[in-house]
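Page 37, continued from 36.
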């Protein structure tokens, strides 16, 4: 039986979820038998989940409390806490685990922090013992980052400081929602060369980091158009990095030059129909072969499919389909179907994918689930 762990919003984030849930698909019957089986691990608003690369351990971003928690799988539908949660930052919303399983990177929407948390041989979270007040070391640099790197202790860790707004000289210091521009870290992705990319939705930045023994060192930044709001990313098999933007509803492609410095190579709207200010793209995923990208669009509640061209450097809109849910917060591709988590409609839908083009089609199935925000295929 195929299973998915389901993250969701609980009472501290104004949702009905009471922990990590499980979604099951009967073997041999396909996604149309999808059913939510309830919570299997109590946790406050586990809005994002991540799997250890080799161990049966799942990590949860507890968004409301600003913590990260680890859970060990003890049965087909059972998870137990693995140690105590550790503090990360305000509204921690995304986790990415290093391919070697030695640490994870937590992105915090509320205060813009990007945090490295060590993992031991059993997959337990290892707080930074040198920073008892926060339990771990933040690694977010901005203005004065060179000074921060020089004043570190030699292992890549440095004291947290405010990120720098690349458009600080603009007299209109508001974001597209009319709020003051502040740093909002939103996602991280491990790049083929071992470095790490993170998005700053508030400051329109993609940051490139170098991991060190117990910290992250800023390598450089890529500035995207003002007000675009980079949110989530996928790494293409070619090595290109695709970034979806929440505010401008675009898909940007980044690539590294011969010196390893990343830059913007192309961009396109996720769809000719999607409207900035009304629509807010959320998750970005890709097909196994990387030929098709899928962006969930909140507002119009659609899934935008895009075709990757050339060697990964160009992307163009392909199709737009009804997501079948309200506020598609997250989605994933699984065996010729697209599973979509509808945060506001408290349900998960299954869309068929065209075998030839990869375009999303009709809604094949729906199942109730409490404020789902993330879907993770169980090991």
């Amino acid at each position: 039986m195929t299973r998915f762990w389901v993250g969701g919003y609980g009472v501290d984030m104004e949702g009905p979820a009471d922990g990590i849930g499980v979604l099951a698909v009967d073997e041999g019957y396909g996604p149309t038998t999808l059913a939510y089986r309830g919570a299997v691990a109590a946790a406050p608003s586990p809005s994002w989940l991540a799997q250890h690369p080799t161990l049966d351990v799942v990590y949860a971003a507890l968004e409301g409390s600003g913590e990260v928690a680890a859970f060990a799988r003890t049965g087909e539908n059972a998870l137990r806490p693995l140690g105590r949660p550790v503090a990360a930052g305000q509204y921690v919303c995304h986790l990415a685990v290093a391919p070697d399983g030695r640490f994870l990177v937590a992105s915090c929407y509320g205060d813009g922090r990007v945090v490295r948390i060590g993992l031991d041989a059993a997959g337990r979270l290892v707080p930074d013992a040198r920073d008892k007040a926060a339990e771990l070391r933040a690694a977010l640099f901005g203005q004065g980052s060179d000074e921060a790197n020089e004043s570190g202790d030699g292992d890549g860790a440095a004291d947290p400081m405010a990120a720098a707004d690349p458009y600080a000289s603009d007299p209109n210091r508001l974001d597209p929602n009319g709020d003051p521009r502040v740093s909002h870290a939103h996602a991280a992705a491990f790049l083929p060369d071992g470095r790490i990319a993170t998005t700053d939705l508030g400051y329109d930045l993609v940051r490139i980091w170098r991991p060190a023994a117990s910290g992250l060192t800023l390598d450089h930044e890529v500035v995207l158009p003002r007000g675009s709001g980079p949110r989530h990313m996928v790494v293409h098999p070619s090595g290109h990095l695709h970034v979806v933007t929440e505010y401008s509803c675009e898909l940007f492609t980044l690539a590294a030059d011969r010196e390893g410095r990343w830059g913007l190579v192309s961009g396109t709207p996720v769809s000719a129909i999607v409207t900035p200010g009304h629509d807010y793209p959320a998750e970005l995923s890709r097909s196994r072969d990387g030929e098709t990208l899928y962006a969930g669009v909140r507002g119009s509640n659609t899934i935008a499919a895009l075709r990757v061209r050339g060697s990964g450097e160009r992307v163009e809109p392909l199709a737009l389909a009804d997501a079948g849910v309200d506020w598609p917060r997250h989605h994933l591709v699984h065996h010729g179907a697209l599973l979509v988590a509808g945060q506001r409609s408290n349900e998960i839908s299954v869309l068929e994918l065209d075998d030839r083009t990869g375009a999303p089609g009709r809604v094949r199935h729906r199942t109730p689930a409490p404020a789902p925000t993330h879907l993770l295929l169980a090991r």
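The radius of gyration is 20 Å. Flag for discussion at group meeting. Residues 292 and 358 are 6 Å apart (CA to CA).
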